[in-house]
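We store sequence with structure; for instance:
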Amino acid sequence: MLILATSDVHSPENLQLFLESLNNVSTTPQLVVFAGDMVKRNNIVALRPIINAVKQKLPESKIISIFGNEEFLGYEELYMSVYKEITWLNDNYLKIELSGEELCIIGTRGALDKLTSWQQRKMPLLEKRYKELPGKIGKIARELRVSGCNKIILVSHYGVTYKNLSGEDPSIYPYLACSRFEHIMEEGLVDIIIHGHAHRGVIEVMNIHNVLVYNVSLPARRKLVLINT
């Protein structure tokens, strides 16, 4: 199964780069995955040109998306109602069968090890969510494994480890990722992780505990990332 993944388009800011990168795709993926921050500062209408371009280029591909920090908390239902052609995941999962293969995809905004100063002022309750979320996602993945799902992909906007953040300032790692997600990799609960948010991360993919971890942030990759499962 072939997946085309990206994040951090911050449309309209990086829209032209996205369109050029999409134009350079020469294969047909079964899935297109948006790993959050597809628009800038909750500019909901700015997602439309992205979707239209994907539908025109890849009419048979299924689009799956999570929310990033730029798709503001509390607006999830609005995004879902406006963009019904997208399958949205928000701390839940989807089972799909493509090309004779069952795939389980877990989607989440993810968590951070430290709240940003803005979050501390405006959304202090996020600290509790961030502490609980790795366990919640791990429980979902564990139940999917028990149910017989052999191929599990986790899509998170925020990073899930510091190990693949080279290129970023180490002092801001806690604001880019949540290292408490590493237990999911250590336990072998997922096979592939797709994330964004690390705009300067120089590593596209790293094998961590036999889990392939992809940073698909468009500003970092300067292209759309093809993932063969």
User: Anything to note?
Assistant: The mean pLDDT is 96.
